[in-house]
Write a structure and sequence with these properties.
The model has no long low-confidence stretch (mean pLDDT about 90). The chain has about 450 residues and is of the alpha/beta class. The radius of gyration is 22 Å and the shape is globular. The strands form 7 sheets. Strands 1-7-6-8-9-10-11-12 form an 8-stranded mixed β-sheet, with helices on both faces. The protein folds into 2 domains: about 325 residues, Rossmann fold; about 90 residues, 2-Layer Sandwich (GMP Synthetase, Chain A, domain 3).
């Protein structure tokens, strides 16, 4: 199978393609508030069509192309789109439209669906924005990440997911350039860095783990310090991987952030993590993060960052509450806020309650991940007649189970020690790196 050519798309090239795509959308009868479902692999032109849609008030609904026909049909029935694009040829048809005008800023956010790691995916709908809110939404990303005309954003995650798409869009709106890798593989990634000298990248810890394992196996340690910004999120990052990321890309370049499909919460430069180990940073500008008496985290956001779950008023109502800082939402994560620093403990849905004791998988995972030879690890609960749930661990790596048990005995109190271990070739993950614990 012939590999796809990797190229750099400039802001000027993208702007021209966006104008044609806007005309293609209008020719297809789509207007403000209509939905377009995209269920095909990412590419530079995928980004162009998304931008053309949002800058004309058409709402893109990006879907994972690996979804089954049944899964796609459920979402399409729910969203009632005016157009469904499933092939590159259909995407090209839109890009062949007559040139049409674009708004200065995206007039809406794409309607992403939650990954569905704990249940049926939900559409996150943020509504149509007026001109002021549209400008504020775009500029807050630019000001936080410093997007600028000289940037080259290397997209290594599936571009139909919210974070990589947001970084690509922000770069293009700031007159930067974008490179989209067809998929992440360590060698093509290193070669792309060497060829294009990209300046920004979003990644998930699974990408970093694969890169470092490949470097150790091949001895290929080419310079990767062209980046001014390497932002990682999407899953807990083991400390050893985080520290090596700081060494590989340069401590000044690496940031972690905490967010979700629903919205963005914090940002944390590497220096802040070293000063406050374990933190995911402080609240982003314009946001206030608090923890309630049950340890549930809430985030108050400005008007342009508000959302509802598509056609699900009950779930929407459960996610929001009024606070002194304004309307705040939760996604069910547990944690704490100390002097403004936000710390995550677990997702409420990941929390294991064994014999009345709360066990946070992230804590157990961080201990087991330090064992030499452990490449990946996930901790989860299974039903137990005596204790309600028992703690279990799945791991990847050539490590005897007894070694893991010894480390757990040394570092963890009895309720936190996994009662079962299973070795796997790989952990089941979503495309953005989240472990599918329900499959375990």
């Amino acid at each position: 199978m012939k590999s796809r050519v990797i190229r750099r798309m400039t802001a000027a090239e993208s702007a021209s393609a966006q104008r044609h795509a806007a005309g293609g959308l209008r020719s297809a009868g789509l207007g403000r508030g209509d939905r377009i479902v995209l269920t095909l692999p990412g590419s530079p032109n995928y980004v162009n069509v998304v931008l053309a849609a949002t800058r004309t008030g058409v709402v893109p609904v990006p879907l994972d192309p690996r979804l089954t026909p049944h899964e796609v049909a459920q979402i399409v029935d729910d969203v009632e789109p005016s157009l469904v694009v499933t092939t590159q040829a259909e995407l090209d048809d839109l890009l062949a439209g007559p040139e049409s005008e674009l708004a200065a800023w995206p007039l809406c956010r794409p309607m992403h669906f939650t990954s569905g790691t704990t249940g049926r995916p939900k559409g996150v709908w943020s509504g149509l924005l007026d001109d002021d809110d549209a400008r504020s939404l775009a500029l807050e990303e630019r000001e936080l990440w410093g997007f600028m005309a000289g940037d080259i954003n290397l997209v290594i995650s599936p571009v139909y997911h919210s974070a990589p798409l947001r970084f690509a869009v922000g770069t293009l709106l700031a007159d930067g350039s974008v490179i989209v890798l067809p998929k992440f593989e360590p060698q093509p990634f290193v070669e792309a860095v060497e060829q294009f000298a990209p300046t920004t990248m979003f990644c998930v810890p699974a990408h970093l783990q694969r890169l470092f394992a490949w470097q150790d196996e091949t001895g290929d340690n080419r310079d990767l310090t062209t980046f001014r910004l390497v932002a990682h999120a999407g899953a807990p990052c083991p400390d050893a991987i985080r520290r090596r990321t700081h060494e590989t890309f340069g401590r000044d370049a690496v940031w972690e952030f905490y967010g979700s499909t629903e919205g963005q919460w914090t940002a944390c430069p590497a220096d802040d993590w070293h000063t406050h180990p374990g933190t995911v940073g402080r609240a982003r500008p314009g946001r206030v993060v608090t923890a309630d008496g049950d340890g549930l985290l809430w985030c108050a956001v400005p008007p342009w960052a508000r959302f509802e779950y598509w056609r699900d008023p009950e779930k929407t109502a459960a996610a929001w509450k009024d606070t002194p800082d304004g309307p705040a939402f939760t996604v069910g994560d547990l944690g704490r806020v100390e002097d403004g620093w936000v710390y995550l403990d677990a997702r409420r849905t990941d929390l294991i309650i064994t014999g009345g004791v709360n066990v946070y998988p992230a804590e157990v995972e961080s201990v087991l991940a330090e064992v030499p030879g452990v490449e990946d690890v996930a901790v989860f609960g299974r039903p137990d007649e005596s204790w309600g749930q028992r703690v279990c661990a799945a791991y990847v790596g050539d490590v005897p189970e007894v070694t893991l048990r010894e480390r757990a005995t040394e570092r963890l109190s009895p309720p936190k020690r996994p009662k079962e271990y299973v070795r796997l070739a790989e952990l089941p993950r979503t495309a953005t790196g989240k472990v599918r614990r329900h499959e375990l």
